[in-house]
Design a protein that fits this description.
Blueprint: E1 9-13, E2 22-28, H1 32-39, E3 40-42, E4 59-65, E5 72-81, E6 92-98, H2 101-111, E7 117-119, H3 124-131, H4 137-148, H5 152-163, H6 165-190, H7 200-219, H8 224-230, E8 232-237, H9 244-254, E9 270-276, E10 279-285, H10 295-310, E11 313-319, H11 320-323, H12 335-338, E12 346-350, H13 359-369, E13 373-376, H14 385-399, H15 417-435, H16 441-459, H17 465-472
Parallel strand pairs: 1-7, 8-10, 8-11, 11-12, 12-13
Antiparallel strand pairs: 1-2, 2-6, 3-4, 4-5, 5-6, 9-10
Helix pairs in contact: 4-5, 6-7, 6-16, 7-15, 15-16
Bound molecules: guanosine-5'-diphosphate and zinc ion.
Guanosine-5'-diphosphate binds next to helix 9.
Length: about 475
């Protein structure tokens, strides 16, 4: 757990360790200016004598020196941010020094000589920014997601949240709930028909109904935001020997932006993390699906089936020569695979180099499969692959509309399960409010108070010690 003692001045290396251009050491707290006086010697004197205090928000060329020995540790830049106009809302000093390991550790060691200074814990700078009201929880989460963003869509969604638009949206909802509460409480205080005009309760009910509708619509989003944040899970499946692994290899080589290979890959399911059209996609190649008596293979097939059923998006690969009877033109669909194809499945008909099939025959195969959309390609001859990639990327973009294009709603995507839980609770309380009539006005007011609190937990305006640790846990030191 993090210490909330804000009287202490904390310091840490805020850039990643290693040899880069510069390293930034950040110092935050009431004694930040003392740190400046103890360590920083200005090189140019145009802004006064080298020992005078710095003008806030101005960069200075300086030497960083040891507070006890006066030894020069590095040449660099320093800037002082005066409270409350700093990241943490406290006095902050940043030392921009050379990033060599010895330089950084000598400066950190020197800082430990300054009384009342101590090393920062993970996420502590951001936590102070939150405590100081500089950021709300959705911005903290947005910042964290921005640091971790690997694709364009993730970057855009995280940037919006970090900029405060998620906070603004939920704050509007919370204020709405509070205004409804104020109406109802006025009835409790004065009683209808006296000072308050008739129909106030009815008016509150209508507003609560609209608010509940708004939240309900927001929640019915197929978890798009959460899926985008963690990566869209794509399962490639189909019979053995149709080109599934070839497709995965193709995607892996084609795509310059392979992010990571996902740990926990099993013998029969291989996973890769890719960037498809700006969307994060975790691709799983499954064991070939067919009827079999082999026990080991049966297990693999079973696992593949379960994966296909639980994945976000599935792509069925079939071999075109296998699924079209070239003499009759009839589609031949293996039943073990057909049973896994739903109206949401995408289909790739591979090995077009081996047969001559008319567009009509292709459409009749696709309609017999009842799939969402299909493409004809040859992985071996690299035919139709660009069309497939473009079309597939577009299909995913439409399905996971992230506001990369215009036309998406002004509601922020629900990117964290935490937000969904609080919204669901708020909705339950609003629905409970609607079951009361004006006779139960005191009980009804309670429901509204809880609803407003539940919404407030999203941004953290409501006391949320319990969620703070969860939100700040994954930050590293220096953030
Ligand atoms: P998987 O079992 O579904 O993963 O299939 P593989 O990717 O391992 O491919 C099975 C065989 O089909 C390999 O010998 C590939 O070289 C071959 N293959 C894959 N794509 C094509 C294609 O478009 N045309 C032809 N002629 N062969 C292909
Ligand atoms: Zn394979």
């Amino acid at each position: 757990p993090l210490s909330d003692n804000q009287r202490e001045t904390i310091y840490a290396l805020s850039t990643p360790p290693g040899k880069g251009g510069v390293a930034v050491v950040r110092i935050s707290g009431p004694d930040a200016l003392q740190v400046w006086r103890a360590l920083v010697r200005r090189v140019t004197r145009q802004d006064g004598p080298e020992s005078s205090d710095p003008t806030p928000w101005q960069m200075y060329r300086c030497k960083v020196t040891h507070p006890a020995t006066g030894e020069v540790l590095d040449d660099g830049l320093a800037v002082y941010f005066k409270a409350p106009k700093s990241f943490t809302t406290e006095d902050v000093v940043e030392l921009h020094i050379h990033s060599g390991r010895a330089v950084v550790s000598s400066v950190l060691a020197a800082l430990s000589f300054v009384p009342t200074c101590r090393p920062a814990e993970a996420g502590e700078f951001t936590r102070r920014a939150f405590k100081g009201g500089r950021l709300d929880l959705t911005q903290v989460e947005g910042l964290k997601d921005l640091i971790n963003a690997e694709t364009e869509s993730q970057r855009k969604v995280a940037l919006k949240a970090a900029g405060g638009s998620t906070r603004d949206h939920f704050e509007k909802l919370r204020k709405d709930a509070i205004q409804c509460l104020a109406l109802v409480e006025a009835l409790i205080d004065f009683g209808e028909g006296e000072d308050i005009e008739e129909g106030v309760y009815e008016q509150a009910r209508e507003r609560v109904k609209a608010l509940a509708r708004n939240i309900r619509e927001h929640l019915s989003d197929n978890r798009r935001g959460e899926i985008l944040r963690s990566g869209i899970r794509l399962a490639i499946f189909g019979p053995p020997n149709v080109g599934k692994s070839s497709l995965l290899n193709f995607l892996a080589q084609r795509d310059a932006a392979i992010v990571t290979s996902v740990p926990g890959t099993t013998r029969d399911i291989l996973e890769l993390s890719l960037d498809i059209g700006g969307l994060p996609v975790i691709v799983a190649d499954t064991a070939g699906i067919r009827q079999t008596d082999d026990l080991v293979e049966k297990l693999g097939v079973e696992r593949a089936r379960n994966l296909v059923k639980s994945t976000d998006v599935s792509l069925c690969v079939l071999s075109l020569p296998d699924v079209v009877d070239t003499s009759s033109g009839w589609p031949i669909i293996p039943s073990s695979v057909a049973s896994l194809i739903t109206p949401e499945t995408y289909v790739l008909l591979n090995k077009s180099d081996l047969v001559d099939v008319s567009p009509d025959q292709v459409s009749s195969v696709l309609s017999a499969l009842g799939a969402r959309k299909g493409w004809v390609v040859s992985l071996a001859a690299d035919e139709g692959m660009q069309d497939f990639l473009d079309g597939f990327a577009q299909a995913l973009q439409e399905r996971y509309d992230v506001g990369l294009e215009q036309g998406s709603s002004d509601r922020p995507l629900i990117t964290h399960a935490r937000h969904r839980v609080h919204l669901e609770h708020a909705l339950q309380f609003l629905d409970a409010f609607l079951t009361h009539d004006a006779e139960d006005v005191v009980l009804a007011a309670e429901e509204l108070r809880y609803a407003a609190q539940a919404i407030g937990k999203i941004s953290g305006v409501i006391d949320v010690e319990d969620v703070l640790d969860a939100v700040f846990r994954d930050f590293c030191i220096g953030k």
